[in-house]
Specification:
seven-stranded mixed sheet; mainly beta; 3 helices; globular; ten-stranded mixed sheet; 263 residues
């Protein structure tokens, strides 16, 4: 008699994997050029022609979003005096996932002496049922300049979406010579719609952004920056070289309207 093996009824889903590594150098004419590029799976980069001498990189998630079990890794390195501006082709969409199978996004940024990196992705949009684990680790030389803007949107208000069961863990670490300059963590689980109504969280705002500038001249920019802030934002110095801005807005359009003059 032939023994039949048990057949699993658990569905097996296809998972997206993406890996991207970009490094730049500064040539003898002070123009920043691509040194190395490695891209695998569902991660790609395009490089629009720049008129400023900076290297401009646009990251593309060809999977169209992030869901449970997806894994994406990006590594950006600016060599001595090199300048890179990084953005994304579209807003990153974080789709429904199981409670035990989070989507993962890992970003690593390194700046050498005199380098400059602008990390300016478009919004990350959370969808109902999403489960995200994301990290951004930055190592900045004391003479380098790093600008980061990370916008986050709690659901698509125009589509009537309400986030009743979601999970997000978002960790940002910026260090210089092994010393922490900025550490931030967001951890929210469950009924996000109820959480963001709390005054101590977002007071009903459905979009937020963290802006961090690491630059030897950051202190000089504090007052001009504060003059541009809406009522739902604040700016402060963690040190003479680290400027932090937090913004809340009703939606992503209002968030962009406030961010652009500041940038």
């Amino acid at each position: 008699m032939t023994q039949q093996l048990p057949i699993s009824t658990d569905p097996v889903f296809q998972r997206a994997r993406g890996s991207l590594a970009i490094s730049a150098i500064c040539d003898e004419t002070t123009v920043s050029r691509l040194k190395n590029l490695r891209q695998e799976g569902s991660y790609r980069a395009i490089f629009p022609k720049s008129q400023t001498g900076n290297l401009e990189a646009v990251l593309i998630n060809t999977a169209g979003g992030v869901t449970g079990g997806d894994q994406f890794l990006a590594s950006i390195t600016a060599g001595e005096n090199a300048r890179i501006s990084v953005t994304t082709q579209a807003a990153e969409r974080i789709y429904r996932a199981s409670a035990k199978d989070a989507g993962q996004i890992t970003n690593r940024v390194t700046l050498a002496k005199g380098a400059q990196i602008f990390w300016l992705p478009q919004e990350t949009i959370l969808f109902e049922g999403c489960n995200l684990r994301r990290s951004l680790d930055v190592n900045v030389d004391p003479t380098a300049t790093f600008l980061m803007v990370e916008p986050l949107v709690f659901g698509r208000e125009a589509s009537g979406e309400v986030l009743r069961d979601c999970s997000i863990q978002d960790h940002i670490s910026i260090t210089s010579d092994g010393h922490p300059l900025y550490l931030d963590r967001i951890q929210m689980n469950g009924d996000l719609a109820a959480m963001i109504k709390r005054r101590a969280i977002t007071d009903g705002a459905r979009a937020m952004a963290n802006l961090v500038l690491v630059d030897p001249d950051a202190k000089r920019l504090l007052s001009p920056c504060r003059a541009l802030l809406p009522r739902t934002a604040g700016a402060s110095l963690l040190s003479d070289s680290v400027l932090v801005v937090r913004l809340l807005a009703q939606d992503s359009f209002a968030l962009r309207t406030a961010l652009l003059p500041i940038l």
